[in-house]
Structures are given as C-alpha cells and as structure tokens.
Amino acid sequence: QAVLTQPPSASGTPGQRVTISCSGSSFNIGTNSVHWYQRLPGTAPKLLIYTNTQGPSGVPDRFSGSKSGTSASLAISGLRSEDEADYYCAAWDDTLSGWVFGGGTKLTVL
Amino acid sequence: QLQLQESGPGLVKPSETLSLTCTVSGGSISSASDYWGWIRQPPGKGLEWMGTINFSGSSSYNPSLESRVTISVDRSKNQFSLKLSSVTAADTAVYYCTRLCSGGVCRLDYWGQGTLVTVSS
Asked: What is the pLDDT of residue B24?
C-alpha cells in the first residue's frame, strides 16, 4: 500500500490535457516538496518535475506541476504518443524520515 | 552526465543475503553534499525507499527493513552497495540505485536502470 495515493490509470487522446493527482498527508506533501517521475517501458525513472513546480532542463514545458495543501498534480498538455508511460510522485515523509512514493499512474494515449 | 548502474546476482535463494552494487560514472560519489540510496519495486507494487548513504558512510534506513539492510560506500571504486539479509519471496523486486540529493537539493535526480532480483530456491 503506497503512502501517497495516485489513480492507477489515466488516458487521453493526442493534443489533450491530462492531469494526474497525488494525495498525501501533513507529514509528507503538506510539509515537503513533491517530485514527479516518468518511467517509460524498460527504462530508468526520469525526473520530470521537482520541488512541486520546477522542470529540469530538457523536460518539455508541456509538463507542469502544482501543489495545494496535502495534494499535488502533474499536468501534461498537448498529449503525445511518446508520453505513454508510468508516472510516480514522491515526497519526503517526516514520520518515516525517508522517502515515500505514489503507487504510480499508467498513462495511455488513445 | 551522471550515470548509475546496478550489478549483482539476479537470483537469490530464500534465507540468503542479497548483494547489489551501484557504480557511479560521470561524477564523484565523494561529493560532500550528495546522498545516494536504494529504492525497490516488487512486481505489481509501488516504489519503496530502502535507505540512504553519503560519502562518509553515514546511513539511514527504512524502519521496515532496518534489521536486515546495510548500505555501504566504497569511494575508491566510486560505488555504493546494498546488502539485504534473510531474504524471502517478498523481496523479489526491481532494485534501483539513485542519487537522492545533490548540492542541498533532494529530488532523486538520477536513477540506475534497475535490476530484477528474484528470490527463489
């Protein structure tokens, strides 16, 4: 059972905007930064968004993040077929004194 | 470009010790501001943080695994390692090594490709 809650699946058609939610508690998301990762089939997870809203260099600005209270969201606009992947959220947890993750959301581009 | 690569046996027998090594290239593991770690994902389940280590060998572990896990660092080889004792089938997972923090910013910015370890007799 993942500490952070994500929907198991999401889908959209090319060009659409899709959002993926990540829900936690005051001990993790409510207090600490949220990071998002993309894992394409057979590859290592890739940092997509860090510190709630920041995109690393090289990540298209079609990907954006937001946080409010104990929840965070990843938005993907202008959906493309190559965005089909698993997406994970992560945050530091003060009670664990370690990292916690969402269960992952499998994004399908229809 | 920093790269991390996991290595070790893909099959471990129940009750034995799982041992994996992460080799870091394109950067130094000895940076005082960097923290490194292991994360695993059992089949069909989510990601689980196992533990963290820095260049001096200071480590911290997930309480759920603390009695069985040891993470160590070998600066001369630019590597850090994971040992998990008394494994069971529940320890079957893809194991990833990661750079958890760098320059005071913790965001798990680099990951290895992951290695599948199966616990089976």
From this structure: 96
